[in-house]
Amino acid sequence: MLEPAYQVDVVIVGAGVAGLSAAHRLTSAGVTTAVLEAASCPGGRMSTEKVDGFRLDRLGQLLSMSYPELRRTPGLGRLVLRRFAPGVLLHHDGHRQRAGAPAGGGSARGALHVVRALASAPRGTTAPAGRAGAPLGGAVDQARLGAALGRIAGTPVERLLARPELPAAQALAARGVPARTVDGFLRPLLAALLCDRELTTSSRCADLALRAFAGGRLSVPEGGAEALPELLARALPPGTVHTGVRVTSVSTTSVTTAEHGEIRCRAVLLATDARAAAELLPGLRVPDFHSVTVVHHTTDEPAAAFSTGTSLLLDAERGGPVAHTAVLSNVDPSRAPAGRVLISSTVLGPPPDEIDTAVRMHLSRLYGMSTRRWETLAVHHTPEAVPAMRPPHDLRRPVRLLAGLYVCGDHRDTSTLQGALHSAHRAVSAILTDLGAAGSLHCADPAATLPRAA
Question: Is pLDDT of 171 > 80?
Answer without folding.
Answer: yes
